[in-house]
């Protein structure tokens, strides 16, 4: 079977066991020549750096696939890593002086090379003079080969130096922008001398068959052939060595090299065979390395535990031999990580490294294991490992990197809450100024690394969440991104030290502001936009390159728009938005345009200055800043005008004059003014001096000379009289003076004075609400009913009916309330149909100007009373719009009206009407959260009406329809099944009772741990488990000691039965249900009491005299006494638990009664009290109670009445069952009574 090597190409010649195995057996005189073969690679590459071309050691190190997290250890220099087992060089090419790092000395090397050249020439002159085939000539050839090898190493070093210099120059030229051809390594000269060495080896093998060092030559030749990639030729030489010199000191090394060859070619069987032979040699270095490679054979064969054991053996073996096998121990400790990761034994790995690894290497090994756990997706184990690293050195330089890795691991698990928590923890622990920061103050590179690590992680994280939010548009994801942005800005964009202001701080502040805008958090967004405008980018090229200056202009404009919204919210012109979970967010939605203000209206300059509100002040400043930074922008005039109007409205007339003067000077063509005749009324209106305005407008209306020139003005003044009178009553008397009694009377007088006023029905509506607030409910009802009588078809009819229904509720006229709620729904539906019909009619005149549009919505009631009267089309359009607004307002109440109609119909005993209302609610608003609960409630209504069959069907329908609905919890479904069980028991439907009881027992496992703690669910489950024991209880109680002949058999059966029964009731007790736990304890007591009673009531044997009978009965009493004690103990426990839980029911009475039989008078006799019920009860929650309705302001045709408060949101108002009344418990002898 072909073995799959999972970790790529294996490194060649790693110095971990550079000495090999044969060194101990070599004559000391040969060590120098043996070391020469390996030193060429060792010394040359250590001096030449890792850029050497064909080095397989460098290649192996570069292929390390462990995670980058392990590479971030600040306190330690990262060692080169590789994957897969290390390679061992030949034993006799082992450690020598050339492998020791030394300072390169060009002069000494050059001198040595010249001496070497002289020696080569000397040997070349001497060798031809020696006898062909003599050992002397062979020795000289061998020494010449060694000189060639040293020459090859020297040339190789020179070639590498030239290459590195050329590469350095190439990098510098590339940085300057020059285009040059990349340098290449050239080793032709060194390879020529290496080839000459190989040729001499071949000559020695071919011409000197009796030379004693042929085994050594065969080994070196095979080794060099292997390095040159001529693997088959190398194998032939190795096999020749084994065959011709089986006792050679090079044979163990040869086994290792052959094992490596087959291992490299995925032939594990052959490789294992040679490694086993090498291990059998018992040469320490070869033995250790062979075991090491056998471990990797196990790994590639899937025997991970065996491989782990072998590597641990190598660590112990090498550790016992000190520095001799120190490198192999190091590599084995490094490689054992792979096995721990493969077996997912992180905890064992941590303990092992702490026990076996040098203390200074433990952190690096454990962190590398953690990184590899992340690489293979074992995030939980990786998190535990990183936590150990942090716990071991909480103030260590590597702690920020480990915490960052924990964050990434949680992200890999998609645990967003944990990502957020660990991210926050990372920032808190390692932010500037933290305890860790103080502990590492003297190490600025470490601090900078922590800053970079936390900044990068948080920036990448928040960017990912921001992008995900843009894709999903989910408000929850936006809020998560917002919170991380805030942490980022607070930590990386606010320091006084520019070194610790991130390059991305400017952009991230802007993105944070954009997120806040998208979430409609205007105040926070405005503050961040201001911060972006004022932000000083650090004086670093990297920061300037990253920062996008266009964001500053965008932020300056966006700040204006945000403050404008805040001002409008402040003034009540805009509702404060609050995005709900699940809502979609449109981040790309336009922020709008600068609002075009109307004409300037002069104000009374005697009015005292008022301070600008905080947001008004910020809006003015934002307008000024934008115009200052970006002069002559397209919005400049509107921004200047907006700022001027704000200060003008606050009566800062000097500042306003200056600002208006600037506008005039710069934009002389602009004209915005009001007519003088309307100015005074406008000023009074703007100051909301309604009483003064009413007096003044009445004077105007009485002045024929003033009105005669302009009928339109006269009409406008008449509107002001009516409107200001209404506003004075509503806003001053009612709202400001808080005098509802006076306001109500004035509204009635208003209707009397202006019975045909367009505000008459509005005034009566307001009076109705005020009477309601004043507690004069009867007068409120009278006012409302008058609207329905005298102003039929009023757009306020739905509002009137809805408010009347609520008044009837307070008057306890629930039948009227139910009927009026139903009438409200009918009125609303009729108004909706009428509105649709009006929309369908062709419009006579389509020439609507912008004024008509301005009269819509909430702005309609803010239209000046003293403005020009609208046209007929505008008036009709305004009325239609007001109707639609009232209809829209009423539409919000329809759900609660239907709900309350059902509630009160149910309350007055009209169950059919209640169910009809509930079903209408469920049909019209089937997506509302409380619909499943209402479906459940219908079953409770049937239950209350003692209609178990209908109740069972309703609960079954609930389960089938809403069982899989996300709005229905598993707990609710479970309770529905339980109510079915109660219904089926009442119907004495044994089959369905047993079916549902089984479903309840099986369904308990599907509930969440939280749901399993709910008392109602515990009682339902406990009851189901209790009923499951009924059959065994009946069997137990049916065992009677009726015959002396069968008493021994019956006694045994009774004993076995009570053991089973007691265990079953203990299981019921274990459910945690208080009520049914008490019932189970009571049943245990009653079971023992039944046992004792049966013993005492058993017949006497025939033929006993009086004395014998007495003795027999005495023995029976002795048998019964312990049972009675057990019965008493269980019953007392049941009673104690009942008192603890404040439960008093039939089971409590049964327990007391039985104890009284044993201890008469222990509990007082229970006095029977006849049942007294209330007039009615309902199973739903109380009626949904929105706030009191308000009526809008009095401006005919153009103003919107203030609505009653919206009905309570259905998401928070769901009907609940009246309770889970426990059914009558089964008794000791049957099913009905205890």
From TrEMBL:
Region (Disordered): 19-104, 835-882, 1185-1234
Signal peptide residues on this chain, from the entry's feature table: 1-20
Record keyword Signal present: yes
InterPro entries with a match to the protein in the record: TPR-like_helical_dom_sf, TPR_rpt
Biased composition (Basic and acidic residues): 54-84, 846-865, 873-882
Domain of life: Bacteria
Keywords, ordered alphabetically: Signal
Pfam families membership: TPR_16 (PF13432), TPR_6 (PF13174)
Compositionally biased tracts (Low complexity): 1193-1222
Presence of keyword Zinc: no
Name by which UniProt lists this protein: TPR domain protein, putative component of TonB system
